[in-house]
Fold this protein.
Amino acid sequence: MAKHRWTVLLIPHGTSRTRTFALSATALRLGAGIMTVVAAAMLAAALGVVSRSVDLSRSQLLRHTNRALAGEVERLGRRANALSDTLAVLSRHDDEVRLVAGLDPLSPDVQRAGIGGPVGPWPERDRLLADGGTAGREAFGLHMDLDALIRRATIIAVSFKEAADSLAAHVAQMEATPTIMPTPGFLSSRFASLRYHPILHKNLPHEGIDITAAYGTRIIAPAEGRVMQVGRESGYGLMVVLDHGHGLETRYAHMARTAAQVGQVVKRGDLLGYVGSTGLSTGPHLHYEVRVNGRPVDPLRYVLPDDFAD
C-alpha cells in the first residue's frame, strides 16, 4: 500500500528560489505530537505560575490576617490586664463597704473564684491549640483569663449586693432606734432599779427617765415607729406608746395633750404631744421609757451625744 505524502511549497516574493518539502503522514503525526507536548508544557508552566501567584497572594493575605489577629489579641490582653487592675480596686472598695456593713471581707481564696471538675470535650480549645499557631495559643490563654475575670466580677457584684442589703438593714434599724431626746429640758430623775417615789413614799423601780420642761413643751418621736396606744394609763396619766420594730418600744407619759393617733406611722421628729402633769406627777415633766422585748432599759443608752430635740 502506497504511503501518503504531502508536499509543501514555500514561494517567496521577489527573485528568491522556491523551496519544496515532502512530508510523510508519520512525520506530520510526530510534529503534531511534539506541538501538543510543547503546548501542554507551556500550559502547565502557565498554570504553575498562576498557582504560585495565587498561593503567594493567599500566603500574604494570611500573614496580614495573622498579624492583625495577633495585634488584636495583644490589645485585648492589655485591656484584660486593665480590667484585672480595676477589679482589684473594686475588691478593696468591697472590703471597705463590707466592714461598714458589719460583714467580714471576702477571703482571697473566694475572690480567686476557682473552678474545676472533668474537662470533657472542648472543640474551641482543640481548634485554637491545634490549628491556631502562636496566635491561637495566645487567644486561648486570653480566653481563660477573661473567664476568670468574669467569675471574679460576678463574685464582687454579689458581695456588693450583700453589703448593700446589710447596709439597708442597718439604716432601717438606725431609723427605728431612739437616738434623740424626745423633748428639751433638764434630766430630773434617772433610770433606776429602785427609787424613792415622791408621791407613794416608798422604794419602787423607775423604769425610765424624767425630763423636766415647761408645760406645753413639744414632745417628738425620737425614731421611726407606729403608734400603738394613745390614752390614759394608771400612774402614767395621758400617754403615747410607739412600736419601732426590732423589739423596741418607747413610752411617753404625763402628757397634757396628744397629737398622734393609733396606727399612725411617725418619723423621727414628728409631733407626738405636749408636756403636762397628768397621772402621778408632782409637776410638768415627761416620763420617757424604752423597752426591749418588753424589758425596760435605760433610754440614755440609745441617745447619741449632744443629740437632743429642739
Summary: Residues 186-301 form a domain with the Glucose Permease (Domain IIA) fold (CATH 2.70.70.10).
